[in-house]
Amino acid sequence: MAVPHRLAILVSVAIACSGACSGSTPAPDSTVRIVSLHDVTTEIVVALGATDRLAGVAEPVDIDGKAAAAIARVPRVGDLESILAVRPAIVVGLAVVAAQDPDLVARLRDAGVTVHLGDPATLDDVYRLVRDVGERIAAAPAGEALAAQLAAQAGAPETPGPPVHDGHRTRVFVYDCCDPPFTAGRRTVLNDLIARAGGDNVFADLNAAWTHVSWEEVVARRPELVVIHAYKYEGQGDAADKERAVRAISALAALRTVVIPLGCSLGGLRSLDGLARLRAAIGARA
């Protein structure tokens, strides 16, 4: 199903392009010109100390404050003409870029530009993405170090955090936006974060990334905690409006909610902040 808002350029939707979206690795060159078409990869490039190599970035939607300051003067790009105008050697982003505009990716490659699009669905994939981006932008040692730091912060996957009280794992519904609701399926980093935090995503059985469901389906899954994404785009409401939408459903009106920035859910460096927020929310008593 088509995504009706800018999240289509952000979320890690499941598409056939995965590792196959990766281009060849450029020769090590500290002057390699980079374009980033996703907030997740923009934050990674900045964290790897390669901001000076950014020739262009897609307009940010929900980006870390430090990264936002770092790219303040970097040209904004989006279509083929604007990207080619800044003469990149490599374009990085997430697989959703190809899902949204496959022709753009094909034409960039035809023009001789290396395109690398990650498709993270777990925290382990996030570490891999950091390493891959580091290798492709001539910052491999920094990528290895940052991936190791993230893994150490998260802890081992076999210790995902305690279940909630009385041995019960909290049932979690993710409400990104919209009516019908847009939520996280199995193939999302957020699904992995919920599990690591000791909860169960009520739509983890859906073999999908971000997808629409009905309010009737939500109620039938009997959630106990609602994760609300904090961002606002075009005609969508903010987090308070989304919470009101949840409260308007009588069967959901009394549920606990936790507001999490969108950037904590999409498979980038802020995944660890998202994990910490979820652990705190899932571990809290109602």
Summarize the structure in words:
35% of the residues lie in helices and 16% in strands. The protein is an alpha/beta fold and 286 residues long. It folds into two domains: 6-154, Rossmann fold; 165-283, Rossmann fold (3-Layer(aba) Sandwich), CATH 3.40.50.1980. The strands form three sheets. Strands 3-2-1-4-5 form a five-stranded parallel sheet, sandwiched between helices. The two termini are 35 Å apart. The model is unreliable at 1-28 (pLDDT under 50).
Secondary structure topology:
Layout: E1 34-36, H1 39-47, E2 54-58, H2 65-70, E3 76-77, H3 80-85, E4 90-94, H4 96-100, H5 102-110, E5 114-118, H6 123-136, H7 140-154, E6 170-175, E7 182-184, H8 189-196, E8 199-201, E9 210-212, H9 215-220, E10 225-230, H10 239-247, E11 256-261, H11 271-283
Parallel strand pairs: 1-2, 1-4, 2-3, 4-5, 6-8, 6-10, 10-11
Antiparallel strand pairs: 7-9
- Beta-strand fraction estimate: 15-25%
What level of helicity do the residues show? 25-40%
CATH fold-level topology of the largest domain: Rossmann fold
How does CATH name the architecture of the largest domain? Answer: 3-Layer(aba) Sandwich
- Summarize the helix and strand pattern as letters: EHEHEHEHHEHHEEHEEHEHEH
Number of strands: 11
Oligomer: single chain
**What profile does the largest beta sheet have?**
5 strands, parallel
Shape designation: globular
- CA radius of gyration is 19 Å
As residue ranges, the low-confidence spans are 1-28
Round the mean pLDDT to the nearest integer and report it: 86
Q: Give the strand order of the largest sheet, numbering strands 1, 2, ... along the chain.
A: 3-2-1-4-5
Q: If helices are DSSP runs of H or I spanning 4 or more residues, what is the number of helices?
A: 11
Count of the separate structural domains: 2
Distance between the termini: 35 Å
- CATH H level, superfamily name of the largest domain: Nitrogenase molybdenum iron protein domain
CATH class of the largest domain: Alpha Beta
**Class per helix and strand makeup:** alpha/beta
